[in-house]
């Protein structure tokens, strides 16, 4: 269990299953202990014992089983409040509190915003706590989620919303997909020296079994092919090279289609 300190809370990172990350958020000014997307319950119970604290809340970003499978068991064990998107509540196991951008969860000692980030699923949300974004399967290290239910336009709108956050915001996504995503990114953006540096840095991390996550907004904007259409020079060069309309949505859509078959 690796831990990352923020001003009002500590994030504990739990690697589970093949490549999932579960996150525990331990508030500094209250007894709140939140789990984000519990893919399974065993690791969460073990972490709670190590921290010596009971789980108080379960936050889900979306309904997929590898983000919600621990909900019912942990709710039964701890009496934790299960929280998820109001507009997708019927697919969140054990949900107690339905939240939205206009109605975020209130947790003592924490400042929480909800972002509607549809695309991967139609009901996907993210949670922003100060300078930490828990974005599930919307944005990955050098990647973004597949469009299982949403449209390219929805996902592009969601990614633009995330890209507007402060550059130092740490990205806590739900999977360790970074190296595979970087291999694709280098093909898409071969002249990007910052991307090549990231590939070397993150490859070394994985060789040592160190997570590449969290990343930051600044790093993703500079190296993630799904955010690179925000850069005018990249947009123009990519559109010309692929005979794509020189508009951000068209370029994003083309890149997403290429990744689906990579």
From TrEMBL:
Cofactor note: Binds 2 Zn(2+) ions per subunit.
Residues the entry annotates as binding Zn(2+) 1: 62, 64, 120, 137
All copies of domain Metallo-beta-lactamase, residue ranges: 19-175
Keyword Heme belongs to the record: no
Cross-referenced Pfam families: HAGH_C, Lactamase_B
Cofactor annotation: Zn(2+)
Family, similarity comment: Belongs to the metallo-beta-lactamase superfamily. Glyoxalase II family.
Database matches in PANTHER family: HYDROXYACYLGLUTATHIONE HYDROLASE, HYDROXYACYLGLUTATHIONE HYDROLASE GLOB
Protein name according to UniProt: Hydroxyacylglutathione hydrolase
Organism: Mariprofundus ferrooxydans PV-1
